Q: What sequence folds into this?
């Protein structure tokens, strides 16, 4: 009995490797998106605390220069928050794209897996049929030899 050979095995292995690489890429993209979200949330918290400081400064005896300085810092924080938000959105978009690529790669690999399984079932069925035919021919030849006048004399 010969061994089953799937002609597209190399392609199947390449698809499996590609799927693994894309899974790793998705993991890294999700990590980057999480880090970007965390950075944005931290900057949002710092900005809220700074706004609270500005409100407290307005009610206390502070100079115009100090208020101007706090206002400048808030403007800078707003810019950082906007940059962090843009980076977070970009990282989220990259994660979505990586997820879509992984789904496509998984579907391609699954299609080849199903084809391989179908070919294997056909091969087993054909091989079993050939083995049965060989056994039937052997049994028929033995019966013919035993039924013949020469075989009966033995």
A:
């Amino acid at each position: 009995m010969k061994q089953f050979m799937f002609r597209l095995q190399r392609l199947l292995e390449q698809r499996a490797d590609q799927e693994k690489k894309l899974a790793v890429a998705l993991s890294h993209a999700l990590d980057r998106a999480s880090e970007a979200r965390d950075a944005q949330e931290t900057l949002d918290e710092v900005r809220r605390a700074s706004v609270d400081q500005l409100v407290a400064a307005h009610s206390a005896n502070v100079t115009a220069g100090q208020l101007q300085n706090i206002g400048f810092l808030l403007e800078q924080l707003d810019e950082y928050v906007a940059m962090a938000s843009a980076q977070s959105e970009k990282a989220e978009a990259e994660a979505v794209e990586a997820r879509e690529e992984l789904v496509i790669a998984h579907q391609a690999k699954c299609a080849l897996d199903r084809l391989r399984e179908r070919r294997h079932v056909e091969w087993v069925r054909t091989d079993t049929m050939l083995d049965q035919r060989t056994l039937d021919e052997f049994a028929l030849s033995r019966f013919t030899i035993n039924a013949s006048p020469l075989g009966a004399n033995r």
Summary: The chain has a mean pLDDT of 89. The radius of gyration is 37 Å. Residues 64-147 form the longest helix (84 residues).
